[in-house]
């Protein structure tokens, strides 16, 4: 009978402990969220419970990968992202319950809010770039890419210090002021600038590393990178938009799109239905282009028909009806033409 190596056993134990701790924190956060749901809070980015969603998704996929591919750092990074998200979610939701949701504040509420106000930095500015840098086999493309890895560490340190020690209302917990301000603003503010400046070359370097992998990849590795790109490209658009646009819908979209990353990474690393990505990309391109074209045709037809019939009728219902019929008749012809164009451009060899 073959005995399991001690190192493998200890790795599996660590995975199970981290997973249990993460789910326990996420469950606790969900309980405090329910208990303080009606608490009056100032407006903040995203929505309450977003970190709980991320904690659950990243922890589940990270645990599966770490158990089945223990030597691959990707699983451990996703598991770490889930655990950090769970810790931040617990801190934020306990803070609301302990400070805002009760007549008399409970101990530890302010510390929980403070903890949740900056731990997300490790997840967003540290783990995400490292996943791009190490994907799919958990190793750097070459030794020279260590510079990007160290940039990620420096970005996390500076940005986390800025968020953790700046005076004033806490990030994501504006109902409380920062209780830990050991550094003067003249030292804290430059940390935020440094972190922001480092973030651009960090993400650029991590993405370029993935591009270089794809250019030299063949077979399985090429399909794996396609899966990550499929989840990362819309996220790259929604991320900056959610930071500058105050519309909640954009922020909710970013939260949901971020969940695609662990799913895509899990499929790629575990190679489950790996080659379905080509069909998925094909359908996304076709129906995305078809939807955009039909919307443009519909809007243009409404405007043109409405303008042409304005002297005869003051209502717009006829223009809407004509536009709807015209759009419906174009669905199948446009779909066939777009499908042919996509196949010619991206699938010439098939």
Describe the structure.
With 350 residues, the chain is an all-alpha fold. The chain has two domains: 6-272, Rhopdopsin 7-helix transmembrane proteins (Up-down Bundle), CATH 1.20.1070; 280-346, no CATH class. The chain contains twelve helices and two strands; from the N terminus they run ααααααββαααααα. It has helices spanning 6-35, 50-68, 73-100, 109-116, 120-134, 146-165, 185-216, 219-244, 248-258, 260-270, 277-309, 317-346; strands at residues 169-170, 173-177. Strands 1-2 form a two-stranded antiparallel ribbon. A hairpin with a 2-residue loop joins strand 1 and strand 2. Helix 5 packs antiparallel against helix 6 (146-165) and helix 8 (219-244) runs antiparallel to helix 10. The chain is globular, with a radius of gyration of 24 Å.
Quick synopsis:
It contains twelve helices and two strands; from the N terminus they run ααααααββαααααα.
List descriptors.
globular; Rhopdopsin 7-helix transmembrane proteins; 350 residues; 12 helices; 2 domains; single chain; 2 strands; two-stranded antiparallel sheet; mainly alpha
């Amino acid at each position: 009978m073959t005995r399991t190596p001690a190192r493998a056993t200890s790795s599996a134990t660590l995975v199970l402990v981290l997973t249990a701790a993460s789910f326990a924190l996420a469950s606790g956060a969900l309980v405090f969220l329910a208990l303080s749901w009606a608490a009056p809070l100032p407006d903040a980015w995203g929505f309450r419970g977003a970190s709980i969603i991320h904690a659950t998704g990243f922890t589940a996929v990270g645990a599966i990968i770490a158990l089945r591919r223990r030597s691959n750092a990707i699983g451990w990074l996703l598991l770490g992202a889930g655990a950090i998200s769970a810790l931040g979610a617990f801190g934020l939701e306990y803070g609301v319950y302990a400070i805002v949701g009760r007549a008399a504040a409970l101990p530890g509420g302010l510390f929980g809010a403070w903890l949740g106000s900056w731990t997300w930095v490790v997840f967003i500015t540290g783990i995400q770039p490292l996943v791009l840098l190490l994907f799919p086999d958990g190793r750097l493309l070459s030794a020279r890419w260590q510079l990007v890895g160290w940039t990620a560490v420096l970005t996390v340190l500076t940005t986390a210090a800025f968020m953790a020690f700046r005076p004033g209302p806490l990030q994501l917990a504006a109902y409380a002021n920062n209780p830990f301000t050991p550094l003067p603003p003249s030292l804290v503010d430059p940390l935020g600038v440094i972190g922001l400046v480092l973030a651009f070359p960090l993400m650029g370097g991590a993405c370029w590393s993935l591009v270089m992998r794809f250019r030299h990849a063949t077979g399985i590795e090429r399909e794996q990178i396609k899966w990550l790109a499929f989840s990362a490209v819309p996220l790259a658009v929604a991320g900056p938009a959610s930071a500058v646009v105050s519309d909640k819908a954009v922020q909710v979209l970013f939260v949901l799109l971020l969940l695609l990353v662990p799913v895509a990474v899990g499929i790629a690393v575990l190679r489950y239905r790996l080659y379905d990505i080509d069909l998925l990309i094909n359908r996304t391109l076709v129906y995305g282009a078809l939807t955009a074209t039909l919307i443009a045709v519909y809007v243009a037809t409404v405007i043109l028909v409405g303008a042409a019939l304005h002297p005869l009728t003051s209502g717009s219902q006829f223009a809407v009806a004509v536009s709807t019929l015209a759009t419906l008749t174009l669905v199948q012809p446009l779909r066939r033409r777009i499908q042919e164009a996509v196949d010619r451009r991206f699938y010439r060899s098939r």
